[in-house]
Amino acid sequence: MAQIEVDNPVEETWQGTVEDLKGLVSPRALTGETMLLNMGPQHPSTHGVLRLLLELDGETVVNCIPDVGFLHTGIEKNMEAKTYIKALVMTDRMDYLNPMGNNLAYCLAIEKLGEIDVPERAMIARVMLAELTRINSHLVWLGTHSLDLGGMAVMLYAFREREAILDIFELVSGQRMMTSYFRPGGLWRDLPDEFVPTLQAFLNDFPNKLRDYETLLTNNPLWIDRTQGIGVLSPQDAIAMGCSGPTMRGSGVNFDMRKAQPYSCYEEFDFDVPTGEHGDVYDRFLVRVREMYESVRIINQALKRLPKGPFISNNRKYVPPPRAELGTSMEAVIHHFKLWTEGFKLPEGEVYAAVESPRGELGCYLSSDGGTHPHRVHFRTPSFILISALSKLAKGYMLADLVAIIGSTDIVLGDCDR
Amino acid sequence: MQTATPPVLKDPVVQIRGAFPDAVQDVIEFRGETTVVVDPAHIVEICRFCRDTEGLEFNLFSDMTCVDYYPNDPRFALCYHLYAMFDNRRLRLKVYLAGDEPHIESVTSVYPAVNWQEREAFDLMGIMFDGHPDMRRILMPRDWVGHPLRKDYPLGYETVQFTFNYDEIQRQKPMAQQ
């Protein structure tokens, strides 16, 4: 047998030094007995630019070391250099499938710190839009997850439905994805007149369509074969690893921020929190699909009780006056000028506000030094924690199942890297 | 996890004060949130105490973050956000760390969820966590110099390129030097 001259077989696949690898992979990898394989960062099934360093024994995953940071854009640092209102725009860009939810977490933190009141119309509208965003995000997840496992049709259907939601976002905010529609104290502008009929039409249609799409997967033997018993996460592990959202609920832990610590009048709505039993990929799938029905339920209730009235707080220290007032009131001009040049000041202190994003607990830690810029903003993003749990989830499964496992955690890399 | 008989709620501040009388430096109630400022030397024991004591049971680790109070001293603060799932309470443990290259014991032994968050604090703020299983940079490239979220780390910017300064800017780009 010809001797192949390789000084160190590891060096070829790993861009760091071998010293970095020690402790991450098993000693067998360093001798070349098991294979090291880079999955990503351009792999389509990693749902963004995620790189996984895999140690494979045949097709079995021995170790999975996630490497993130490819989408790190320094949002937290940038926000410190902007006024509170300007910084809001950056929150959309973190989790680009959940722009309204990100806005909501940030606005709740500001409102908590500044003790800003939010009118009821704005709160109900926020609930509706946050739930629409959840459906939007879950649809993208459903489409891409099934595409990963070979179900092409579902993706096309899911994206078609998502288009209708994006149209509603465009209707209210003028933007399809980066909406920046929630502002501290309420909403950027009032809901347009066409909003309610458009949303109603969507809601009348959507559950039936979702049921149709579900028939493609829920009882499909191919789908069940690929997902049941794969990527099992025990409830104890889910809590220990800090997982939240559908990934945790798939393991049977009934934990939802909307129920646990209700915000934005979620406590006044009647909805269930679906949970799984086995904690495998299939249960997470079921939890998310059922969540979409629950979201429809919430929006339907919200539509019934959407009150008339102001859509943003009247607190002029934080909320700019309406355009019409500028022509008649000197005070309004002063407020307008102050708010759009210097920005508002928040009292010194620190708060933590959490919302239930489609992926889990999205927390916003806001620390203020009394100035017009945030002293420190930190987002506890669910994807970051979920990816850290990935190495535990993937261990021992086949390489082909890894695709299903990554998809089932529903990670968004923009959310992770910020 | 729900137990058959619901445990008696206990006040975390009283409990921590009772168990670690010297470690509690301050207690702040602000906007309905409880912050307990503790001695960095005892953070691991206090976390374990909060997790395991009946009636507290802060079993879910929500978030850990680092704040830079430059140029004040102590300069850094770490905020640990703990969550008790059985009665939906939050508790913030805060430690102040002096010096520019602070060290603190890692709490990964108590809450595995903190693993990447401590790596993030190391990467972006330069806090060293002793006993952490995998202390590498996480968001920044591995050969990055400095810790970008520190207050004395400047926020870089690029001059906008117009026709009048096109050549000037082009000359300063890294590719021009090669």
- Write down the overall mean pLDDT of chain A: 87
Instruction: Give the overall form of chain B.
Output: elongated
Percent range of helical residues of chain B: 10-25%
- Rough outline of chain A: globular
- Largest contact between protein chains? A-B, 45 and 40 residues
Number of helices of chain B: 5
Count of discrete alpha- or pi-helical segments spanning 4 or more residues of chain A: 19
What CATH calls the topology of the domain at 75-314 and 343-389 in chain A is Cytochrome-c3 Hydrogenase, chain B
Provide the succession of SSEs of chain B.
Answer: HEEHEEEEHEHH
Order of helices and strands of chain A: HHEEEHHHHHEEHHHHHHHHEEEHHHH
Roughly how much helix do the residues of chain A carry, as a percent range?
40-55%
Briefly note the structural class of the backbone of chain A. mainly alpha
Q: What is Rg of chain B? A: 21 Å
Query: Nearest-angstrom radius of gyration of chain A?
Result: 23 Å
Please tell me about this protein's structure.
The complex is a heterodimer of chains A (418) and B (178). With 418 residues, chain A is mainly alpha-helical. Chain A has a domain at 75-314 and 343-389: Cytochrome-c3 Hydrogenase, chain B, CATH 1.10.645. Chain A is built from 19 helices and eight strands. In chain A, β6 and β7 form a beta hairpin. The model of chain B has no long low-confidence stretch (mean pLDDT 85). Chain B has five helices and seven strands. Chain B has a single domain, classed as NADH:ubiquinone oxidoreductase Nqo5 subunit (Beta Polymerase, domain 2). With 178 residues, chain B is of the alpha/beta class. Chain B has helices at 12-19, 43-52, 115-125, 166-172, 174-177; strands spanning 24-30, 33-38, 60-68, 76-84, 89-97, 103-105, 128-130. At the A-B interface, α3, α10, β6, β7 and β8 of A face β3 and α3 of B.
